[in-house]
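Title: Prediction job returns without error message
Component: structure pipeline
Severity: low
Priority: P3
Assignee: unassigned

Description:
Job completed but the reporter wants confirmation the result is attached to the right record. Sequence as submitted:
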Amino acid sequence: MTRYFITLQYDGTNYHGWQVQPNGITVEECIEKALTTLCGETVDIVGAGRTDAGVHARKMVAHFDTERDIDCQQLVYKLNRMLPKDIAILRVEPVDNDMHARFSAKSRTYHYYIHTRKDAFLRHYSCLITFPLDIEKMNEAAHVMKEYTDFGAFCKSHTDVKTTLCEIYEARFTQLSPYSYEFTITANRFLRNMVRAIVGTLVDVGRGRLTLDELRRVIEGKSRCDAGESMPANALFLDEIEY
């Protein structure tokens, strides 16, 4: 049995997230069906994470096991021919059998995009905010996030997780143009809905609705009800996974 890593990207607009589920088509489901057809056996894949409905990935990694001899270059070609245009396989490569797409990952990086002026093209992959934002204050708040390790306040309610502990390595806003911004966050792991909840809370700081002291109390209180609203999924990208 040989284990293979698949590196891919996808536009999540038309999918109900990454993980297979009964109520809609998912990215994982599409890839498993294509692999099963090409390999002539049932193939299950394990992803590095579980992006929510509407979230995109410039880099996602998954693994699968098979006893068949795989021509990696040919498999990439055939998968890309079979899969929808909004899913692209970048490479397939053999790895050690103890490598795991999820548990071997050391960090993941997400980007969230915000624009403050109506734009006919940004609307698909960025969130329009029409009120003034204090980006400097939002960056101060993002720095506060790095002081903590328990992010229960930013985890979707009723989510079955063993721990809400995460280590954030980087969190900052960067101005891309006079009216557009990119939020970068890197951590060892992420909770469900965590990035969008964090961005929503930082936006509250930028609007003057939440002070830095109040932000600390929100984090320490570990209650999702106290944090900001979850931002729209269309502006969120999984960009990097490090092993």
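Comment from assignee: result matches the submitted record. Helices lie at 27-39, 72-82, 135-145, 194-206, 212-221.
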